[in-house]
Amino acid sequence: MRHLADMTSAALPPISVLDLAPVPQGSSVGQALRNSIDLAQHAETLGFHRYWLAEHHNMPGIASAATAVVIGQIAAATTTIRVGSGGVMLPNHAPLMVAEQFGTLNALYPGRIDLGLGRAPGTDQATMRALRRYAGAVDSFAQDVVELQHWFKPASVDHSVRAVPGESQDVPIWILGSSTWGAQLAAALGLPYAFAAHFAPDALIEALTLYRRHFKPSESLDRPYAMVCIGVCAADTDEEAKRLSTSTQQQFLALRRGRPGLLPPPVDDIREHASPGELAGLDHTLQYAAIGSPETVRRKIDRVLELTGADELMAAAQIHDHAARRRSYEILASLRA
Which residues of 238-247 are buried (b: 16+ CB within 10 A; e: fewer)? Predict the structure, then answer.
């Protein structure tokens, strides 16, 4: 049975990084990806547990669409930190191809690769069609996960189709979710579960409760293991952090207005850029986000842990300035000292 992380004597559980490879206004995709490599190396030095990248398509402000490719670059530039997907949107891909990709990664970087799976498209309807994703793909997600598990198992020589690389590769599979559906699947399959509270907070507590209540031990995991992803924007003062966080707020506003774009620079007062209804929506979406000075961030994280009992936290920081993003993770890392 695999235990995904050993709890340390520190008060906080393991903390990991979710990187959306943001493309800031005034920058480029190439620079965004180089920033991701630099941040991953920094995160490894700071002692973060994992570094995950997410699959999104047709989003000018996110550079990690070719997720497995970026994971390979990050893994090549680091030596100890676990690297993986948060996640690969499985209905966009044939399970065999995912097994080959992540089997290849694990063969190159053994014991360091994670495979987080989501069932959302990670894009809009038109892009779904361009990806050749068929309308009912989401309905076969559970079967596709089981098929993917099959491809990672040892194969006999008489099998007509084998995942090469892939077979016999020990790649941990995670189920990602923002609703109760993924929680129930993770419980039924005995897999670790990660909840995306950084953008979809509503079902967090219910999903974790269902996951733990219905969890069935498996060859992969002997007890429930739940990770919660929240937004984190830490700075030396509350005022500075609140200003930096307006880039995330503007990005959410642009997406909801149907105009996704590059990650904008911060503004002095977000109220000048959004209606009262939009501001209320932002407050709701970001209700679990930890934004502020080290003391403020620690209080918010303690509250999230109290509410969720999470075994691990993952932090997403959409900050326009790369140096400020590095600093945010430095502050977060210092809270475990």
Answer: eebbbbbbbb
Dihedral (Cα; 38, 40, 42, 46), 10-degree rounding: 180
Q: Rounded to an integer, what distance in angstroms lies between the CA atom of residue 262 and that of residue 132? A: 26
State pLDDT tens for residues 61-82: 999 999 999 999 999 999 999 9
Average pLDDT value for residue range 156-177: 91
List the alpha helices (DSSP H) in 90-179. Answer: 95-108, 125-130, 141-152
Cα(162)–Cα(219) distance, integer angstroms: 21
pLDDT at 174: 98
Query: With the CA atoms of 61, 67, 71 and 74 taken in that order, what torsion angle do they form, in degrees rounded to the nearest 10?
Result: -20
Q: Which two tokens stand for residue 28?
A: 């480029």
Task: Say what the alpha-carbon torsion angle 131, 22, 145, 50 is, to the nearest 10 degrees.
Answer: 160
User: Which regions of the chain does DSSP assign to beta strands (E)?
Assistant: 15-19, 50-53, 82-89, 113-118, 173-177, 193-196, 226-234, 290-292, 312-316
Give the count of beta carbons closer than 10 Å to the beta carbon of residue 258.
Answer: 7
pTM above 0.85, yes or no: yes
pLDDT at 1 over 50: no
- Band (pLDDT 50/70/90 cuts) for residue 136 is low
Q: Which residues contact 217 (CB under 8 A, 6 or more apart)?
A: 1, 190, 223
Let me know: does 329 contact 39? Beta carbons within 8 Å.
yes
In SS3 terms, 14-77 reads as CEEEEECCECECCCCHHHHHHHHHHHHHHHHHHCCCEEEECCCCCCCCECCCCHHHHHHHHHHH
Among candidates 218, 215, 248, which has minimal Cα distance to 230?
Answer: 248
| C-alpha–C-alpha distance, residues 115 and 128, integer Å | 21
Amino acid at 18: L
